[in-house]
């Protein structure tokens, strides 16, 4: 199985109604009470405007039919009391239901956000380095970003539209009793106004979102990074404030120009819409006046129908305005669904089927490692790379080309070479973060793609050169487990073996101390070397049969790195170990050394064999050995 290099779109663009059904299905699944709350809110708010309208009609009729005005005061007061009480009950019910639905929609949006997160977590790792995929991830995120767009926007604006729909239907039914052609006229002009504004909305989506997604992502990245304290020191010491400000201004200016262009188009269409609305009301009001003068329409009925015309005009205007926004929010949901249903091979079949067959079963997307399946630590595990090549998505050249190499069980293999030689690509292929573009990787004679991915990952204890620490307690950063399942004694032992015991003694909360201040005011920030030692402790805690070290000591000085490798080599015991480094401090105690250059294997053998050969490895080792000697003399001078 090979990861596709390009993300393929989902099944297609969905209509507004399909996206509404999609969101409603989620609401019914997670917060079904939202549905009756939304309906009650729509009915009570929509009908409340007719309470006083009908009451006023009745009051006028009472005075028209009464000889003495004072004789019917009791009836009028009774009508006023009934109308006031009815409206109060409706408004209270409307507001209560509205707030209930609004609060519960946060949970619905959270569940939809889980799908986006799960898709991002489970897509092939190499796809994250594809710019097109990054753009689609960003566009999909806008639908579940807790900013009122997409999923939340569809419900919110539907919730705003429905009361107006009730008002409009009620008004049109009343007006149809006088003349159905009035209703046809109002609906025709309203539809024409809707078509004009929707055209502007589509233009805005294309010009201000689709065509500038890259610029929006850049602007968002600049804002996020400038607000991240991890970048604070560099921004200040290298005086990056002005360049970053200029970048933000450049992106903002470009985006503003697009928005101004869209708003100008809106303005033109809104002017036309206002003219049509003026004609609609003028014709309708003129007809009602004509009916009063020549058609026998009473003053009481005229008052009711006049209010109905106003309600119909206002409600229909609100309906098409809200529906335009709903169409825009639907396009965000389209981006979300396109990404979620995109035909990217997932990291395991159960994840793939979970998204494609039951999009409302996010919790099923993560398969637990088979509790009955365990890799024996003392068993033999032999890896064979058979003519393996790998090409990054969108790249023109291969990062690794026609590599054949064997990693024997219990062997310690050093992969060395200069930056860009393909060392880290080799590690990611071994860890199944990447799938080979060509060739095969075998474990004990079986293609590694045949193993369950979660079970395969249990075989490995990797440490990467990047700092992969989280804003969690130190204990959780080491165990990568919850407090309920982690072994605290084993955590302390792993930290001691990684040479962090001294640092822990300085901390008031020990292994329960948080990293960073994101989640705790007492959080700490470790040095670069300490963070890499923390990553080593994580690998020791996992205690898997195969250890992979991808330049985990790059933040240490050469002498400290050499000592760290020696200590780790001792702790690894007889386990299969892969050391990746562009510095050669790990090579002398390794069984085999593989020298990489330009994505290929150029030298392979023991340290002694390669030194006797006098090739590139020997030359590089001689240069670095002199550097170690000079640094050691400096340290002890």
UniProtKB/TrEMBL annotation:
It comes from the Bacteria. Keywords: ATP-binding, Membrane, Nucleotide-binding, Transmembrane, Transmembrane helix. It is found in: Cell membrane. InterPro entries: AAA+_ATPase, ABC1_TM_sf, ABC_transporter-like_ATP-bd, ABC_transporter-like_CS, P-loop_NTPase, Type_1_exporter. It holds the Pfam family ABC_tran. Its main location: membrane. The chain crosses the membrane at residues 168-192. GO terms for cellular component: plasma membrane. SUPFAM superfamilies: ABC transporter transmembrane region, P-loop containing nucleoside triphosphate hydrolases. Residues 383-623 form the ABC transporter domain. GO terms for molecular function: ATP binding; ATP hydrolysis activity; ATPase-coupled lipid transmembrane transporter activity. It is a multi-pass membrane protein. This is ATP-binding cassette subfamily C protein. It comes from Kineothrix alysoides.
